[in-house]
From TrEMBL, chain B:
It comes from Methylorubrum rhodesianum. The modification 4-aspartylphosphate is found at D69. Keywords: Phosphoprotein. SMART domains: REC. Residues 9-136 form the Response regulatory domain. InterPro entries: CheY-like_superfamily, Sig_transdc_resp-reg_receiver, TCS_response_regulator. This is Response regulator.
Amino acid sequence: MISTGYNPALVALSLAIAVLASYTALDFGGRVRDGGARLRWAWLVGAALAMGGGIWSMHFVGMLAFEMGLPAAYDLGRTLLSLLIAVAVTGAALAWVGRRQAARWDVLVAGPIMGIGVAAMHYTGMAAMRMPGNLAYSLPIVALSVGIAVLAATVALWLTFRPTGIWQRFAAALVMGVAVAGMHYTGMAAATITAEESGAHSAHLAATSVDQQNLALYVAGVTFVILFLAMLASAFDQQRIQGELRASEERFRAAVAAVRGVLWTNDPQGRMTGEQPGWAALTGQTRAEYQNYGWADAVHPDDRQPSVEAWNATVAGRSTFVHEHRVRARDGLWRHFSIRAVPVFDGHGAIREWVGVHTDITEQREAEAELRESNEEIQRYAYIVSHDLRAPLVNVMGFTSELEAVREELQTLLRDHPQGARINDDIAESLGFIQAAIIKMERLIAAILKLSREGRRRFDPEPLAMTHLVRGIADAQRHQADRKGATVSVAEELPEIVADRLAVEQVFGNLIDNALKYLDPARPGTVEVTASPAPGNRIRFAVSDNGRGIPPQDHGRIFELFRRSGAQDQPGEGIGLASVKALVRALGGRIEVSSQPGAGTTFIVTLPRGPVTDRSAAITHCPTRCPWPRSDHAAALPCRQHRDDRG
Amino acid sequence: MQPPFHAVSIVMIEDDEGHARLIERNIRRAGVNNEIVPFRDGTSALEFLFGADGSGEVSGRRHLLILLDLNLPDMTGIDILERIKANPHTKRSPVVVLTTTDDSREIQRCYDLGANVYITKPVNYEGFSNAIRQLGLFFSVIQVPEIP
């Protein structure tokens, strides 16, 4: 039995190495999960080298701190093996826990592996010791040391992959370093060394001790340099990450600004807290003013209550907040905002905060209102023009007829005149052309008037059983179909829609009438009405025929007023499809045509299932510029303001 | 001419000279020879109907039948109709609205305001002259109250 002791300076050194190595490993380990695929492996290897190498070097220095009064040498092979074990085991454990899909309990697998590995490293290192004496181990203490190793490794791994601040990491490194050292010194306590030739080598003791101290210092020095370089690499990476973070944050702010957005955050309970520079800049509210639900004071009084209610419902439902309201800007003007807010979850599925963006849509809203107004204005023009064009027409027609009467009188008077018949014929021919032109003009004006009235009509949506409705239309046109030997078939299960009955009847009435009008006499005519669902809760109705078809160059033209396609062998003004198009648009739908000349035509009318609320609002809405005395009178009175130039 | 109608004046408020002439010709063709007082704008018509003071007393002893066009340069015929039917001195005078507009809501509104007859001027001259002639026949049988 040899009396043993420790060199306190080297013990302290070994402890310092353990702590520093732990810190480096923790720092690297934290980057394993955050880094990209290639960097990930680099950080993993780095962490394994720092931790494994650090533990090993702590262990080695600790061995050198051991004074047993015997000259000891180290077997290079086994010593290197112990280093390899340390690095490999640490690397394996870190890789296991550092997997992206790793669960939290994975440390309970990796921890024991690493602990046992560290113990293996320690005892391999002990076995590398060459000395004139015998080593014996106390089994319970060995077991204790392994237990400590497992515990320390598990804690270390757990700490490594937990997001922590710098001080927490520092404390963790301290605990871990002490635990690693504790394991080592417990392991040493398990060893009992018996000298073979007691005293024989005492003379060398001093010299050996100096060698040992130097070796310890070398190892420690090299370790420190390696760890220092590692920390340097880590610092550079930290800077890179922070640079990326700053760039990403700036990009994010720019993106929010680019959509004319105002960014704000709320706490998990949906209260506005903390600094809200965006909101403060928009509304001019101070932090005290907007705090909690104070922001609602900047919302338009009409929108306030609905906004708060919608927000509370969203917070309770943990869903995405989509809303619109008006906010009083710093300059005191109301601006329209579209709002979207989403909950930000932490790792455990709890809401960490709410992040929302107010997007300024004032201009969009104004443009929409302007468009609506100009649409209404165009309709008013159409109405006024068609009305006012009629008045002079009455004169032309009236006085032409008066002239006709005069012509008859003249004819009697000129009966005996040699030129009498010619004069009479000239007058009659001229009057005939004038009258024909007037009749045509009147028809055109009537068509414009009809269209403009359809656009202005107030729609009255009601549920429509489409099969029943379209069959009714087909029955009304049975006479026409029978005369042409054509059949109109309406699908059994046309879906129900909610829309204005008259408008829908006019649309399908016109389309079926057209189909029957332009059949191909070469084959028995068939007209089919079918329907299928379309995206956006719409129904796609198709009115198909096997008629004469429409050449491709006319597919756009046929929807224009007074334009017709193909041989002009059927009566009509060319207003049917223009009116259908206007009606379909007013119903919130769209109409398309596909046709092959000589094969048939299909008109596709896509209508919403439900009523178009904002559309009917647009029709009844009377803007401030409205020159009519009352909005309920809107369709009746032509606008006088535009007629100031008249005498 | 029947005696009761003899004193009745037809006030024609019509901005279109041609229309006015056609209306007059056809009324005459129906054998109606009453005085026709034409006005081409609302302002002068109102001045005639309600006097310079606007009270309407000036129409107190008149027997008037008013032919009214709705599209006037300075106001709508609706405004005139409203004032005629609101004034105690003129409210009993028959008002015939004669206009190009055949919009159902406008027709309704005119009757709501107290118009007695609403006639759309047909562009078709035959229809037009028929309508006016029948109106003339109607004038010859209509009783116009004396306004106190």
